[in-house]
Design goal:
- The chain has helices at about 15-25, 65-80, 100-110, 125-130, 150-160, and strands spanning about 5-10, 40-45, 50-55, 85-90, 115-120, 140-145.
- The chain is α/β, with parallel strands linked by helices.
- The protein has one domain (about 5-160): 3-Layer(aba) Sandwich (Rossmann fold), CATH 3.40.50.
- The N and C termini lie close together (about 10 Å).
- The relative contact order is 0.19.
- The structure holds guanosine-5'-diphosphate and magnesium ion.
- Guanosine-5'-diphosphate binds near residues 11, 13, 59 and 145.
């Protein structure tokens, strides 16, 4: 059975880029699932020999500000609930922002496995920001670059623990 992995975090941290990388050429079978699940995207994928069922949580460019946070919260909670493991992604170049803290709080409230990914960390660019993530209380962040494919071996090792 594939491991169900929810990719969560605030907009613009690189969730969809990572989703696309892990989905690889199987992306063609992504189901848009209109209606209740339109804030989330699904695809089969893999990392090494690890089969994944990926859940991407969408951006909210089309939503007015008043409903934004509630909607992000609801879909993040739904994705976490569906998944075996959640991957909390933040932008290690930006460091931990107030909105990152909101998402981290949602994850801490659930008694479900979480892996923290310090994204955009190619070329050690995010070293300082990655360090900040310890204070989120979600475990040691794994430096990755979804765009450049760095840190995938370390991510694989972390995911294996939940297979
Ligand atoms: P999402 O809103 O969390 O789904 O983020 P996206 O995947 O749409 O990416 C947001 C922006 O970050 C885009 O401009 C990406 O090209 C960029 N990005 C994504 N991953 C990386 C990365 O690993 N390194 C760098 N430097 N930029 C990235
Ligand atoms: Mg996205």
């Amino acid at each position: 059975m594939p491991l169900k992995l929810a990719i969560v975090g605030r907009p613009n941290v690189g969730k969809s880029t990572l989703f696309n990388r892990l989905a690889g050429k199987k992306l063609a079978i992504v189901d848009d699932q209109p209606g209740v699940t339109r804030d989330r995207r699904y695809a089969s994928g893999s990392l090494g020999d690890l089969e994944l069922e990926l859940i991407d949580t969408a951006g909210f460019e089309d939503v007015d500000d008043s409903s934004l946070e509630a909607r992000m919260r609801a879909q993040t909670e739904a994705a976490i609930e569906e998944a075996d493991v959640s991957l909390f992604v933040f932008d290690s170049r930006e460091g931990v922002t107030a909105l990152d803290e909101v998402f981290a709080a949602i994850l801490r409230k659930r008694d479900k496995p979480v892996i923290v990914a310090a994204n955009k960390a190619e070329g050690k660019a995010g070293e300082a920001g990655a360090g900040e993530a310890f204070r989120l209380g979600l475990g040691e962040p794994i430096p990755i670059s979804g765009e450049h494919g760095e840190g995938m071996a370390e991510l694989y090792a972390a995911l294996l623990a939940f297979e």
